[in-house]
Design brief:
The chain has helices spanning about 1-35, 45-60, 65-80, 80-95, 165-175, and strands spanning about 105-110, 120-125, 135-140, 150-155, 160. It is α+β, with helices and mostly antiparallel strands. Among the domains are: about 15-70, no CATH class; about 105-175, no CATH class. The protein has a five-stranded antiparallel sheet with strand order 4-3-2-1-5. Helix 1 packs across helix 2 (about 45-60) and helix 3 (about 65-80) packs across helix 4 (about 80-95).
Length: about 180
């Protein structure tokens, strides 16, 4: 009987902990947004933020106001020190949600010809010819439990495509290979 109860308890933990942590993080984000915007109605901060971002998207897409956004973008990309952070965040954002998603070509990379080890990554540049590296390819290797990674330049023959959706492979890597899907 104790063995069955402990089995149920562990199963309950496997459901309870991820659910509570996820709900708590969403709750904390809502409360933080509400407090930053000074609103007292729970969730209104999220609604205001989504509406504001949508309005920015509309204005950036508009012919007249879009020029203003282009100037602001150009300034951020040319101010010393600011451009490093801005361009990095911009590139990561575009790779995840923009028109030019870069995590769509998952691959396995062999670190050396003799190695049986394979690294999971995403092709970011198929042609490095402009840098005099015609036979090489750029692959981004994300780190597990982190939003960081390494860029490696490897010979094309050490790269093997993975027949899977980029989002599934990215989830697999970020979870340390512990996704159950």
């Amino acid at each position: 009987m104790l063995k069955i109860l402990s089995k149920y308890f562990v199963r309950g933990l496997l459901f309870f902990i991820p659910a509570v942590v996820t709900l708590y993080l969403f709750y904390a984000a809502f409360v933080k947004l509400d407090s930053l915007l000074g609103v007292s109605i729970p969730g209104l901060g999220l609604v205001i933020t989504v509406a504001f971002i949508t309005l920015l998207g509309f204005l950036a897409s508009n012919f007249l106001t879009g020029k203003i956004f282009q100037v602001i973008d150009w300034l951020f990309e040319h101010i010393p020190m600011v451009k490093i952070l801005y361009k990095g965040v911009k590139d990561i954002t575009r790779s995840l949600v923009g028109d030019k998603k870069t995590f769509t070509r998952p691959v396995l990379v062999s670190p050396s010809a003799e190695s049986d080890i394979r690294l999971v990554g995403f092709v970011t540049d198929e042609s490095l010819e402009e840098w005099g590296m015609k036979e090489l390819i750029a692959v981004y290797l994300p780190q597990s439990y982190n939003f960081a990674g390494n860029l490696v330049i490897v010979p094309k023959e050490r790269v093997t495509p993975i027949e899977a959706e980029g989002s599934e492979v990215l989830t697999f890597v970020l979870s340390g290979g512990m996704t159950s899907e």
